[in-house]
Design goal:
Number of strands of chain A: 10
Shape of chain A: elongated
Number of domains of chain A: 2
CATH class of chain B: Alpha Beta
Number of strands of chain B: 6
Strand content of chain A: 25-35%
Strand content of chain B: 25-35%
Order of helices and strands of chain A: HEEHEEEHEEHEEEH
CATH class of the largest domain in chain A: Alpha Beta
Distance between the termini of chain A: 22 Å
Order of helices and strands of chain B: EEEHEEEH
CATH topology of chain B: Folate-binding fold
CATH architecture of chain B: 2-Layer Sandwich
Largest sheet of chain A: 5 strands, antiparallel
Oligomer: heterodimer
Structural class of chain A: alpha+beta
Strand order of the largest sheet of chain B: 3-4-5-6
Helix content of chain B: 10-25%
Shape of chain B: globular
Number of domains of chain B: 1
Largest interface: A-B, 10 and 14 residues
Largest sheet of chain B: 4 strands, antiparallel
Number of helices of chain A: 5
Strand order of the largest sheet of chain A: 1-7-10-9-8
Radius of gyration of chain A: 17 Å
Chain lengths: 185, 98
Amino acid sequence: MSNPATEAALNRSGLTISRRDDVAMTHVALRRGRRADLDARVSATLGLTLPDTSRTVEAAGQMAAWAGPEQWLVIGPQEAGTDPSAALAKALNGVASVVDVSDSRVIFRVRGASAADVLSLSMGIDLHDKAFKPGDVAITHASHLGVMVWRHADGQGYDFACARTYAVDFGHWLEDACSKRGVFA
Amino acid sequence: MRISCPHCGERALDEFSYLGDASVTRPDPAAADAADAFYTYAYERRNIAGPTQELWYHQAGCHAWLVVTRDTRTHEISDVKAAQDVALERVNSTTGAA
C-alpha cells in the first residue's frame, strides 16, 4: 500500500485484506459417467463430498469449492517439498481431469463485518445475508474482473480467487473499495 | 434483462453472451441431401415475433451453454435449461433411449 490516506481509511474501515500465498489450488473436472468412482476416491483421499450446487465443503484443512457443473476447485495447504496437485492427479487418475492452477490464480481474503457493504459497490451478485450465505460460492465478476468468490463459514468475510495476471489490479480495487467504508457504503 | 442460470441463479446480462437460434440442429453431412439441408440450416432462419429458443453462454459465470426461451416482443424469459440437458433429450428422443 503506497498511499497513506488509503491505509488510514482502511484502518478505520475495520476491514482487513490479505493474500493467501501458502495454498495449492487444483482444478478437478469429472470424466463422463465416473461420478460414483470420483466420489469414492475423493472421499478416500480428501475426506470430502464434492458439492453439486454452488457451495464449498471443508474437511481437515482441505476445501472443495463448486466451480461450475461437474467441476471443482480444491484448495489446501502448500507445504515445502510436497505437490498436492500431483498427488490428487494420481489419486483421481481416470475418473477426473486434474490440473494444478496454483500458479494461475491468486486468492485474496477480505475479513470484517461490513465486507458485503463495500464489495457490493462493484459486484453484480446479491451479497445480502439471505442471498449469499456462509459457504456459498459464486463465479462472477468483481470490478469487471472474473473471480470466484466464497463466503467464510463464520459469515465474516470472503475469499476471492482471481487470475494471477490481474492480481495487482484486483488488489488495488479491493483496497480502494474497502477504504470507502463509511463514504459510499 | 436478467437470466436465471440453472447452475448459478439469477445473473445480469453482462455475464452472458449470445449465440443464436437453439431450435435448429446441424444436418448430417453424410446424408444424400446434405447440400440442401445445410443451405436451409445456414440461411433459412426464422425471425420470430414471440417466444424463441436461443443459445446463451454464461461466459463470466459457470461457462455453461444455456437454452433460453425468450419472447422477442417483451424480453420475457419463460424458461432456461442447460444446453447439455436439451441436447441429451434430443439424442434420446431420436434414438428411443430412456
